[in-house]
C-alpha cells in the first residue's frame, strides 16, 4: 500500500517536472507570438510585459504593406518547391539503384553523398558565387535553386537510401514476371509503395530550402531575395523595428510549424531515422 | 535493357548534378586558394602558391575565429546533450503519457534558425530583454542591465549559443528517446532482480546501450554546430569587436566585405578538410561495427 502510494507520488513529480521542462521550451516562441500581437508602441516598453495589454494585428498589417516582404515570401516558396521537385527527381532513382543494385561505384556514390553532407555551406558558397556569376545566374531564382539542390540532393539520397533498404527485392522481380521493364517496375510498382518515404524526404527538402539563409545571403541581392534575408534586413536597415520584425518572423515560421503538427508522426520518425541512418 | 545500363541511367542525372554543383565548385575552391584574386575581377589572378594558406594560419583573427568555433561547438553540444538526454529519460519514465510532451517539446525544431536567432536576440538584448527581467524577479541579479549578454566581449560567444541550445535540444531528446525505447525491457528487469538500484541500472545497462545513439548525435550535432552561421549572424553579426565571429563568418566576411577571394578560398578549403576528416573518422568508427 505504502509502496504503491510512493510510486504514484514519484510518477506525479516526474509528470510535473516533464511539464515544466516542456513549457519552458515553448515559452520563448509564445513570447515571440505575444510580441507580434502587441501595439507597436508597447513592444519596447520598460519593463517588458509577457502578455499584450491589447491584442492588435497592427504589426502584421505593417509587414504585409511592406512590398519587399510578400515578394520575398513568394520567392522563398518558389525556390523551396523547385528545389524539392528537382532534388526528388535526381535523388529517388539514384537512391533506388544504389541500394537495390549494389555496385562498387554505387557504394562510392553514397559515400560521396555522405561526405557532402559535412561540407560547410560557406565552403561551397564561395565557389558557387563565382560560378553563378560567370553564367549570369547570380541573384536569380534558378541560381538559388541550384545552390539549394546541391545540399538537398545528398540529404534526399541518404534519407531515400535508408527507406529503400527495407524494400524487398521480390517486389521488382514480381513486376518483371508480369512483363514490366525495369523502369516500368520502378515507376508503377516501387514509387507508389514508397510514397510515404518520398513524402517525408520531400518535406525535409522543402523545409531545408525554406529555412536556408547563407546561400540566399551570398547569392542574391535584389530580385532573388528570400524571406529570411528580408527579415534579417529589418534587423539592420530599419533599426529596432521589433514589432513588424516579430510579426514577419511569425508569418515565416508558421507554415512549417503547422505542416509539422499535421504530419508530426512522419516527421519525427524521419528525423530520428535520418539522423541514425544518415 | 541490361542491368548495368539501367543502373547507369538511374544514377547518372544525380551523379552529373553532384559533379557539376559539388565536385566542380570544390575543385574551383581549391584552385582559387592558390591565387591572389579579387572578388570584383576574378579573371585577373596571380599565382601565389601557399601564401593564402600561410596568411590564413598566421592571421590572429582567423585563428581566434577557429578557436571560437570550437568553444561555441563544445559549449552548445554539452548543454544540448545534457538537457536533451535528461528530457529523453524523463519522457521515457512517463512513456505512456508523454506523447503531448514530446510534441510540444519538438516545437523549437520547426522554428527556422533565423527566427530563433532573432527571438533570442530579443530575449537577451540590452535593457528590453525579458530574460534579465526574469532573473531580477527571481532575485538572481540586481538590475536588468547587470548582464549584457550580447555586448559583453567575454561572454558573447556563449550567449549566442543559447539559441542553438534551445533550437536543437529537442533533436537530441527525440533521437535519445527513440534509442531508449529500443533497450530491451528484460535487460533492465534482470538487473532489477539482481538487486541493482536505479542509478546502477542507468550506469551499467542504459548508458552502455545508448552509446552508439549518443555517438551519432554528437557527430551530427557537432558538425552542424561547427558550421553555424545564420543563428549567430542574426544575433550579433559577429560583434562586438569580432568576439562572436566564428570560422564560417570569418570566411564570409573576408569574401564579401574585403572581396579577397583567394584568402577566403584558402580558409574555406581548410574548413572543408577539417570537417570531412572529422566526419570520416567518426563515421568510420561508428559505421564499421554495424556494417559487417
UniProtKB/TrEMBL annotation, chain A:
Keywords, in A-Z order: Cell membrane, Membrane, Transmembrane, Transmembrane helix, Transport
ABC transmembrane type-1 domain sequence ranges: 73-263
Entry's transmembrane regions: 12-32, 72-96, 108-130, 142-164, 185-210, 241-263
Classification via PROSITE patterns: ABC_TM1
Compartment(s) of residence: Cell membrane
Pfam family, one: BPD_transp_1
Membrane topology per record: Multi-pass membrane protein
Family classification: Belongs to the binding-protein-dependent transport system permease family.
Protein name, UniProt field: Carbohydrate ABC transporter permease
Organism from which the protein derives: Sinorhizobium numidicum
Automatic annotation (TrEMBL), chain B:
Gene3D superfamilies, A to Z: MetI-like (1.10.3720.10)
Record's keyword terms, sorted: Cell membrane, Membrane, Transmembrane, Transmembrane helix, Transport
Stored SUPFAM superfamilies: MetI-like (SSF161098)
CDD domains: TM_PBP2 (cd06261)
Organism in which the protein naturally occurs: Sinorhizobium numidicum
Domain ABC transmembrane type-1: 66-282
Localisation: Cell membrane
Family: Belongs to the binding-protein-dependent transport system permease family.
Transmembrane segments: 7-31, 70-95, 107-135, 155-180, 264-284
A Pfam family matched in the record: BPD_transp_1
UniProt protein name: Sugar ABC transporter permease
Phylogenetic classification of the source organism: Bacteria, Pseudomonadati, Pseudomonadota, Alphaproteobacteria, Hyphomicrobiales
Mode of membrane association: Multi-pass membrane protein
